């Protein structure tokens, strides 16, 4: 049976400081779920657990107390609205969440590709060339898999996102240069651990020039037995609205079935 787009496990509310949409409330997110038949959704605001040192001022404001302002999340019949977060992995490979906070989360989205946050999430040198970006992409992915985490409720965010590098040609070249052998090893381990692989709406908004390099990554993941969840990564109402069509596109292009679904 074809994969039904009944989940969205990566959504930001207005509590994320980069949202800038006062209408991006839990109620609006629940209304989106009702409209599009989404049964499992998760709020994942940007989060740094301030029990872990090394945060920036921007992250320091987005602590547990702050993201908890969304609770209790509104619920509706037939819909599970979960509470989670999008944490961070800094340039020292420090994951910004303690075991204690992990227990309080239904789902934890881990981004390894915030290459735009130079000098914080990565060093300038780590993302200066195609070769460096490929190495950094692999290193950070491998590091997450080496940690002691509750992997059944962990998702790897936007592995093929445009944050990898601002130049479009460099972006395509970087994805093209990701070696199949290393990717196969990583995705095989990810499948064994039960980590969810995100199909991010923005990543699935590829154009003709980037389609194949983006999809190749997920085809390899699928062949390795990885399970996929959908992530609008919406920060605004408008971004919520455009996600379902992009999810459908990903499901079609990758030929996903219900067996490929990550179940939380
Ligand atoms: Zn992110
Ligand atoms: Zn996000």
Question: Can you tell me about this structure?
Answer:
The chain has 264 residues and is of the alpha/beta class. It has one domain: TIM Barrel. Helices cover 37% and strands 14% of the residues. Strand 1 (7-11), helix 1 and strand 2 (40-46) form a beta-alpha-beta unit. Helix 1 (26-36) packs parallel to helix 9 (237-254), helix 5 runs parallel beside helix 7 (180-193) and helix 7 packs across helix 8 (211-223). One zinc ion is lined by residues 86, 111, 114, 157-158.
Compact overview of the structure:
By secondary structure, the chain is an alpha/beta fold. Helices cover 37% and strands 14% of the residues.
Question: In sequence order, what are the helices and strands, one letter per element?
Answer: EHEHHEHEHEHHEHEH
Would you tell me the structural class of the helices and strands?
alpha/beta
Compute the average pLDDT: 98
CATH superfamily: Metal-dependent hydrolases
* DSSP E strands, number: 7
- Distinct compounds present: zinc ion
**Which CATH first-tier class would you pick?**
Alpha Beta
Largest sheet: 7 strands, parallel
Rg (CA only)? 17 Å
- The share of residues in extended strands comes to 5-15%
Q: What spatial form do the alpha-carbon principal axes imply?
A: globular
Topology-level CATH name: TIM Barrel
Uncertain segments are none
Q: What is the second-level CATH architecture?
A: Alpha-Beta Barrel
Helix percent reads 25-40%
Specify the number of helices.
Answer: 9
**How many structurally independent domains?**
1
**Distance linking N and C termini:** 19 Å
